[in-house]
Amino acid sequence: MNADLNLLRQAVGLATENAAAGQLPFGALVVRDGEILGTGVNTALRDCDPSAHAEVEAVRNVCRDRKTLDLTGAEIYSSCEPCPMCRSVATTAGIAVIWFAALGADLPDLAYPVQPPATFAARHVRLDGSGEPFQRYLGR
């Protein structure tokens, strides 16, 4: 448990440094078998990229550096409770556990420039030929 606490402290440290640089205060590490594979901080404001959350950036950095999409067996240590997008990215990369320090419900208002819509809908439309890209990929 001490190792987990130390890794969480490092994630909080990254978040603190990022806040000092004028960015949103979030940091994350990707760790496997006690080895830090990579880190990430929230760069959404700097990059004008709403997907640039710390956990996503950490996964991107590790996957890019190691030239893989598979992070099975790794865990994420985050300064804050991950949002649904971050959890989805972790799951997609094979990460089954995210440790986090701060609860999302305890966050102060960070004056993020965009508020989520009250409702969201995804709509499916049947389209002839929509399976073609998949067939092309499988036939490569």
Beta percentage is: 15-25%
User: Given the helix and strand composition, which structural class is it?
Assistant: alpha+beta
Number of strand elements? 4
The CA-CA distance between the termini, in Å, is 47 Å
**In this structure, how is the largest beta sheet organized?**
4 strands, mixed
Write the H/E string, N to C: HEEHHEHEH
Helical proportion, percent range: 25-40%
Structural Rg? 17 Å
How would you state the average pLDDT, rounded? Answer: 96
Low-pLDDT sequence parts: none
The oligomeric status of these chains comes to single chain
Shape: globular
Q: Given the structure, what is the number of helices?
A: 5
Describe what is shown at a glance.
The chain has 140 residues and is of the alpha+beta class. It is 37% helix and 18% strand.
Looking at this protein, list some descriptive labels.
4 strands, 5 helices, 140 residues, 37% helix, four-stranded mixed sheet, globular, alpha+beta
